[in-house]
Design a protein that fits this description.
It is built from 13 helices and 16 strands. The protein is elongated, with a radius of gyration of 25 Å. The protein is an alpha/beta fold and 387 residues long. The protein is 32% helix and 21% strand.
Length: 387
């Protein structure tokens, strides 16, 4: 029986997919797996028996990835599950910036006592008219699951779309409209585009990426859309850019005291992935990833360990080993099984940066003694009997 703890409410459409081998527990310290959305885990003591964390969403800055890796805890996310919800809000953000819909609605509210409001509106509406987005240039920085959907939707709306992603995956390339102009330098987007939207992870290298230097390269009056992470932007620089007229609008899905209520800022209360459909999709994917890992040892969409899939084990046993990505590890692992007279029928070894993951299918039921011997090897974080 696997025990699962939910640090946040998780959609029932996902939880109901757990088989009778699983039990939801309120005691996180007895959990084999954790499902989480926004709860911050950095100061949390990891349960001794914890095997995996599945984030029902894409961002994982609330999870201590390195700490989990060193404890042999696999962290999953659900890329693409909420992509459509975010895409639709990005398009809405462009329209809100292009046409002062919010200002117009607020004016109507303020004039609700005017008996001739329809007539007055005809005089006032020019203040809120704005421009159309058809024919305008959109730059999409980051062509992952969300960025591709935004780019394709913008093409369908008649925009001229530029895309930048030095790490464009094969799957993303196949999904991207041929009409999107793939550029090799962000500066081309800065110089050409009326709208720029960011869909990149928050890393040390991307923190504060939207800063005074980048803004100075942008087309005057540009609209910047940030639906990825607020810390991608140096928002003091953004406000200066608005004040100078270099930035026409800054549209963000991350409310904070710096931009909330500021002129030129359209700040949305973090609604990007909050649709019912997105939450359902994320819950379903997170549960599927967790089950496949716990039952088979397979890793799909992990952010701290490499992808690895050996299907369902048909041999007597399967052992998973989490270790440093250093030389001679496989020789040491096979020696342990050889000393016990256990034949290895199949195996795989994958690495990701400084960590690696090895799975071995064996022709005898593995024992706790095997696990103990493996964990004594220098460089091994953890060994686990999958079957």
């Amino acid at each position: 029986m696997y025990k699962i703890n939910c640090l946040n409410p998780i959609a029932q459409v996902g939880l109901k997919n757990f088989s009778d081998q699983y039990e939801i527990t309120n005691d996180v310290q007895e959990a084999d797996g954790i499902l989480v959305r926004s709860a911050v885990m950095h100061d949390m003591e990891l349960p001794k028996g914890l095997l995996a964390v599945a984030r029902a969403g894409a961002g994982v800055n609330n999870i201590p990835l390195d700490k989990c890796a060193e404890h042999g805890v696999v962290v999953f996310n659900t890329p693409g599950a909420n992509a459509n919800g975010v895409k639709e809000l990005v398009i809405a953000g462009m329209l809100l910036a292009a046409r002062d819909v919010v200002g117009g609605i607020e004016w109507v509210k303020s004039a609700k006592e005017d008996a001739d409001i329809a007539k007055t509106a005809e005089k006032e509406k020019k203040k809120f008219a704005g421009t159309e987005i058809m024919g305008k240039k959109l730059g999409v920085i980051g062509l992952g699951a969300i960025g591709v959907k935004v780019a394709n939707a913008a093409v369908a709306l008649g925009m001229e779309v530029y895309g930048y992603d030095p790490y464009l995956s094969v799957n993303a390339a196949w999904s991207l409209s041929r009409a999107v102009k793939h550029v090799l330098n962000e500066d081309d987007i800065y110089a050409e585009c009326d709208y720029i939207t960011y869909h990149i992870p928050l890393l040390d290298s991307t923190k504060g990426k939207i800063n005074a230097e980048a803004i100075a390269k942008m087309k005057k009056g540009v609209t910047i859309l940030n639906f990825s992470r607020d810390l991608l932007a140096n928002e003091d620089d953004v406000l200066e850019g608005i004040k100078s007229g270099q930035i026409g609008h800054y549209v963000s899905d991350f409310p904070n005291p710096t931009t909330a209520g500021q002129p030129g800022c359209i700040v949305i209360p973090h609604l990007g992935a909050s649709t019912e459909e997105s939450e359902d999709n994320c819950a379903v994917m997170a549960v599927e990833e967790l089950m496949d890992y716990l039952e088979n040892g397979n890793i799909r969409n992990s952010v701290n360990y490499p992808a690895c899939d050996m299907g369902v084990c048909t041999k007597a046993g399967r052992v998973a080993i989490f270790h440093k990505n250093i030389a001679n590890m496989i020789t040491k692992f096979t020696a342990v099984f050889g000393e016990k007279g256990i034949n290895i029928s199949d195996m795989t070894n994958k690495s990701r940066g400084e960590v690696a993951y090895t799975m071995l299918d064996v022709e005898a039921v593995p024992t706790a003694e095997i696990v103990e011997a493996l964990e004594k090897i220098n460089g091994v974080f953890r060994a686990r009997i999958v079957k």
